Amino acid sequence: MSETRQAGQTGPRRCVVTGAAGFIGSHLAEALLAAGHRVVGIDCFTDYYDPAVKRRNVEPALASACFSLAEVDLRRDDLAPLVEGADVVFHLAAMPGLLRSWTDFDGYMTCNVQGTQRLLEALRQAGSPHLVHVSTSSVYGRDSSGDEDRMPAPISPYGVTKLAAEKLVLAYADIFDQPVTVLRYFSIFGPRQRPDMGYHIFIERILDGLPITVFGDGSQTRGNTFVDDCVAATLAAMEAGPSGQVFNVGGGEVVSVIDVLRLIEAITERKARIEHGPARPGEQQRALADTRKARAAFGWSPRTGIEAGLRAQVAWHLALRGEAPRG
Ligand SMILES: NC(=O)c1ccc[n+]([C@@H]2O[C@H](COP(=O)([O-])OP(=O)(O)OC[C@H]3O[C@@H](n4cnc5c(N)ncnc54)[C@H](O)[C@@H]3O)[C@@H](O)[C@H]2O)c1
Question: Which of 170, 259, 292, 323 has its CA 20 to 30 A from that of 82?
């Protein structure tokens, strides 16, 4: 490993962010730029949701002279020139979401597994820069409480493909000394949240006065993570350097779906029209992150409570509609 790739490196770094036009990747790219680093963003603008939304996500990063965007597909394009000379590669590109993974297995297999394998091969050719690989609490399955040693038992093709990707990354670390850090994100929210995600749907429908379907009884709980906290953990993982370890990254406050709806009602000053539907196959009943390991290794902890985070997300939805924040 070159000197510049050791933990404790200071000064501007050459970073690559895959999935840079996505919800989290676009925030990460901006945070890296704000910290003085150079960033190459990779994204192929999949149609999982409207690519125009992704173009809007990546606009602020594109305004920086230290950012460039490569519109390439991890499944088929030549990745070696993009990662050549990089100090750190953050791998966020993936097909996300549980539901579609039951009907588009090929898309999940190729983007999440094959795309990761092709990236790993490109990193080998590029002298093995530090890979910060983004995984998910969905690898745990029904219950993601407990620490990182809990046996993964995913119950959706999404979780299965993300677990396969994680295992592949750890295999390259073992066999080829690829320097890696694996982060398992837990339900991220905040401005730019994907349009298929719960809070995004809740806020839009409350603002439009439309009914909201709560799957199950709404008692399912989440330790949701504000996107800035998730980005801070990811930057802290870069600073700490490769450990070959897996870390949970999640918020500190546990809330039920119903609690969240009540908070959004209060923030938007609108009443939610709640209807109940059957529980969704593969949905976790509890997703609470045990983040002690990341706290100890990175000196990181989540800072944003659910109410402050929801206020920021609601303000973003209102801004897109040309409306001022309420309250
Ligand atoms: N959002 C969450 O709550 C959450 C929770 C846990 C883990 N994660 C993980 O975080 C990462 C980012 O998630 P997100 O919510 O920002 O999703 P997103 O869909 O907004 O971003 C992913 C981006 O990757 C790009 N992409 C997908 N396949 C690609 C390919 N083959 N080549 C190039 N680009 C490709 C997409 O176009 C998209 O812009 C994913 O790895 C996801 O599994 C997200």
Answer: 170
pLDDT above 70 as % of the chain:
96
Q: Is 46 in the pocket of ligand 1 (CB under 6 A)?
A: yes
Q: What is the pLDDT of residues 103-156, one digit of tens each?
A: 999 999 999 999 999 999 999 999 999 999 999 999 999 888 889 999 999 999
**Which atom, in ligand 1's list, is nearest to the CA of 189?**
3
**Three-state secondary structure call for residue 64:** coil
Catalytically active residues, by annotation: 158
Q: Cα(first)–Cα(last) distance of the chain, in Å?
A: 53
Tokens of 275: 């209807």
- In which residue ranges of the chain is pLDDT below 50? 1-6
For 241, left (φ over 0), alpha (ψ -120 to 50), or beta? left
Q: Is the CB of 96 under 6 A from ligand 1?
A: yes
- Token readout for 154 is 């995913």
Ligand 1: which of 109, 137, 185 to mutate, most ligand atoms within 8 Å of CB? Answer: 185
- Phi, psi (rounded to 5 degrees) for 16: -120, 135
pTM of the model: 0.96
Q: What is the CATH number of domain 12-188+227-249?
A: 3.40.50.720
Cβ of 166 less than 6 Å from ligand 1: no
Give bridge partners of residue 213 from the DSSP assignment. 275
Q: What is the pLDDT of residue 285?
A: 73
Locate the domains of the chain by residue range.
12-188+227-249
Q: Quote the tokens at residue 109.
A: 């297999």
User: What pLDDT does 243 receive?
Assistant: 96
The amino acid sitting at 287 is A
